[in-house]
Predict the 3D structure of the following.
Amino acid sequence: MDKKSSLAALAALGQETRLDIFRLLVKAGGAGIPAGEIAAHLGAVQNTISAHLKILDHAGLVRAEREGRTIRYVADMTGFRDLLAYLMEDCCNGAPELCRPVINAVTCDC
């Protein structure tokens, strides 16, 4: 991940509703959640949620999967791990093994 991509991802997560959406999708795991259910869960208008999902998608943090007339959204854990890796690239003053607990905590089979 480069600086421009990381800034897009951080900006996407820097808004309350988008952060709530991302956390909801992370919790849902690989099954994801249809856009309408995301809106209902957050008590928001579906058009507004769709706009937020588009921003998260462009930032590489979620991906859309079409199921007939429904669009299901899933947290893109690869994009999220890329962001974390970029942020931690030069961590610990040249001793990256000190960051291993953080990396292990965010690594999952999702």
